[in-house]
Specification:
Low-confidence stretches of chain B: none
Radius of gyration of chain A: 13 Å
Strand content of chain B: over 45%
Number of strands of chain A: 12
Mean pLDDT of chain B: 93
Shape of chain A: globular
Shape of chain B: globular
Oligomer: heterodimer
Number of strands of chain B: 11
Structural class of chain B: mainly beta
């Protein structure tokens, strides 16, 4: 069975600081990995995805993530946080039609 | 460019009442999903459909039923609502299995008293 863990249910960073949101997965087969963002009172939007091509994946709004098979990780980073990045972020793994989502990390950006 | 539309967006029910959530997509995608979102638990799959006329159970199907009579619509029904079904429900559509992006609706907030 596949599963996803996200370390830290809430992360706070200062505006302009590095954003690092952690995601670890377990999967018995090579996974496809995704990061989604959810702004208040909205549905989830795709930030980026890994589908077995380049291990460093670039997404929208300056975010990127690196797939590390040896560490079973897919951490999300952004060099410089902006106030508009405040949202909840979900990591997800899939192999087949069923996505498995992590519990989410709420990102706060402090002025 | 509507994408995925859910109705209603808010609903309050009393225990034992029934209701149906409607999801409509205009992207001609084969795969559709119903999730529920609860604090600290991420999204959990209720039911899904891989095409018109087909449905399957997800992780938490008990107390829910679904139908996909038309490709563009995926209905989620609660026959006898319970307080444990208080949640935010999201519908999603996907064009390609595995690597395809999930397109989400804006959610339906359901409260069962």
């Amino acid at each position: 069975a596949q599963s996803v863990t996200q370390l830290g249910s809430h992360v706070s960073v200062s505006e302009g600081a590095l954003v690092l949101l952690r995601c670890n997965y377990s999967s018995s087969v090579p996974p496809y990995l995704f990061w989604y963002v959810q702004y208040p009172n909205q549905g989830l939007q795709l930030l980026l995805k890994y589908t077995s091509a380049a291990t460093l994946v670039k997404g929208i709004n300056g975010f990127e993530a690196e797939f590390k098979k040896s560490e079973t990780s897919f951490h999300l980073t952004k060099p410089s946080a902006h106030m508009s990045d405040a949202a909840e972020y979900f990591c997800a793994v899939t192999h087949g039609q069923n996505f498995v989502f992590g519990p989410g990390t709420r990102l706060s950006v402090l002025p | 460019n509507a994408g995925v539309t859910q109705t209603p967006k808010f609903r309050v029910l009393k225990t034992g009442q029934s209701m149906t959530l409607l999801c409509a997509q205009d992207m001609n995608h084969e795969y559709m999903y119903w999730y529920r979102q609860d604090p600290g638990m991420g999204l959990r799959l209720i039911h899904y459909s891989v095409g018109e006329g087909t449905t399957a159970k997800g992780e938490v199907p008990d107390g829910y039923n679904v139908s996909r009579l038309k490709k563009q619509n995926f209905l989620l029904g609660l026959e006898s609502a319970a307080p444990s079904q208080t949640s935010v429900y999201f519908c999603a559509a996907q064009g390609r299995m595995n690597t395809g992006e999930l397109f989400f609706g804006e959610g339906s907030r359901l409260t069962v008293l």
